[in-house]
Amino acid sequence: MSFLQAIIMGIIQGLTEFLPVSSSGHLALFKILFHVETDTGILFDVLLHLGTLAAIFVAFYKDIFEMFKEGVDLIVDFFKNIGIFVGNVIHRSDNPYYKLVDSSYRKFVMLVIVSTIPTGIIGVVGANVVEAAATTLLVPGICLVITSVLLFISDRAKDGKKTPKNVTYSNAFFIGICQGFATLPGLSRSGTTITACLLSGFNRKFAVKYSFIMSIPAVLGAVILEVKDIAGLNITPVEAGSYAAGVLCAAVVGYICIKTMLVVVRNKKFTIFAVYCLIVGLISIGGYFYTL
Fold first, then answer.
1. Is 137 helix (H, G, I), strand (E, B) or coil?
2. Longest CA–CA separation in the chain, Å
3. What pLDDT is attached to residue 18?
4. Contact at 8 Å (CB) between 214 and 197?
């Protein structure tokens, strides 16, 4: 993989991770069409996601800071409750417990945890399927067509009013399942999860925020799973420089696209992306059968 190819893939990742057109699908198509090869498997793809993860932290740093703070306090209160329980049993007393979910940000934390569970299970079980699917034009093509349908649906979904305090844990679990399946190349993660949020009655602004923030544990999990294989890889200084350039491009472009998506979802402007995904998907499917 050349330095230029790494930069182009970084730009593609930044554009397509947050715009609802599937980053994995476009990266897969780029590799197939331009014969991009690496000796590190999906490591570079994971690093590119790390770049867009940095963009999420920058764009939503206030929310993420509050969630981290409230998450730590929630854990502390949990252990305090254990102490109270033990004390109540020993002394046969009835001291009150701390309420664990007593704010919107604590509820937000719990919702993200619930969403992450099915995503993680599907991601681990289907890892080999996802990697194999990225080597053919057919699967990304079909999934891009599915993404197109989802985007048409999202633009026509009723405006919801749900914010963290109104969202149920079953809503969060359903959205987590959708995010798990969106690891397939061509099935847009943001498009899929935002559509799931809107169909669950989320406020449109919160749907975008939830979609992006809930991806943090999933991306970190993918990075951790990949780290165990890095020790055995032989990455040259030139390759490391190319990777770093690609990650930086993904982060910068990704941040710009996050801000764009907030406007797109609020104004129901998914149609142009739906048409684009449909065209690219049909071309990919046609290309697969043409090359048989």
1. coil
2. 77
3. 82
4. no
